[in-house]
Design goal:
Order of helices and strands: HHHEEHEEEEHHHH
Radius of gyration: 20 Å
Structural class: mainly alpha
Helix content: 25-40%
Number of helices: 8
Strand content: 5-15%
Largest sheet: 2 strands, antiparallel
Number of strands: 6
Length: about 270
């Protein structure tokens, strides 16, 4: 996971967001949601509008905002609500953040395996059952007393435990190991919760990260072995290329530059 600038522009200088017509539609339905209160039924046609979907995909470089897996050619992305719109798993009396159902800043593109509760299915090499996780309606807080229960609540006061990559810097909270495992950085509680809720250590995802890290290390070794680059130069070059924000699993490669020794680079 890496930081995503919500105010990004494309190569032509155009803001990557839906047009003003959609924002007007979203404002109308947001007002309806506030008026309806707990009874509001979120309108998929609004928050999953084609313009929203296209803008989110481009905003996140065609990657899942959470795990950085590239957009699959055979399936569609979920338009994910960072704060869940219909209910909150951690609190039975919470109606969900219905008033945020159409708020651009609450929407992210997510792959199904991060956004929905799914079992980590066995692989050929790992036949034992895996864990079941995924975000679903989960939105844990460090202090439940800070939770906003309705539109009058203070969202900024919530003791959030889940990383919002458009608001937080995920690299302050999560790093990676040589085997591709996501681990909390310096004991970050936000990192630990996000890894578990977003299911960031599911087997196939971990294997892809491990392969990407191995490729980066092989390239660094080649650059230093032939004497064309010092180790710091090689690490920096590979981190700048394979760690580019447009590429999958950039965060894992950037972790090498952050702590080369953890990846066997002395």
């Amino acid at each position: 996971m890496i930081h995503i600038a919500r105010d990004r522009r494309d190569e032509h200088g155009v803001s990557i967001r839906p047009d003003t017509v959609w924002f007007a539609l979203a404002a109308t339905w947001s007002a309806r949601a506030v008026a309806d209160g707990r009874t509001h039924a979120a309108q998929r046609a609004v928050y999953h509008h084609d313009q929203v979907h296209a803008a989110l995909e481009r905003l996140c470089d065609r990657k899942c905002a959470y795990c950085e897996a590239p957009a699959p050619a055979s399936t569609s992305w979920d338009v994910e609500h960072y704060r869940p719109k219909g209910r909150v798993s951690e609190r039975a009396d919470h109606p969900g953040y219905y008033w945020l159902a159409y708020v651009w800043e609450n929407l992210l593109p997510s792959c199904e395996l991060c956004n929905r509760r799914r079992k980590d299915r066995p692989t050929w090499d790992q036949a034992e059952p895996g864990t079941t996780s995924g975000k679903g309606d989960r939105f844990p807080l460090a202090d439940e007393a800070t939770r906003a229960m309705d539109p009058s609540g203070d969202l900024a006061a919530e003791a959030r435990l889940l990383i919002d990559p458009t608001h937080d810097d995920p690299e302050e909270h999560i790093t990676f190991t040589l085997t591709g495992h996501a681990v909390p950085r310096e004991g970050s509680a936000m990192g630990a919760a996000s890894i578990e809720v977003y299911h960031l250590n599911r087997r196939r995802l971990r294997s892809w990260r491990q392969a990407h890290i191995a490729l980066a290390l092989e390239l660094i070794d080649r650059l230093t072995r032939n004497g064309s680059h010092t180790l710091p130069e090689a690490v920096g070059l590979i981190a700048d290329t394979l760690g580019d924000s447009s590429l999958p699993w950039a965060g894992a490669v950037r972790a090498i530059a952050r702590d080369p020794r953890a990846f066997g680079l002395a």
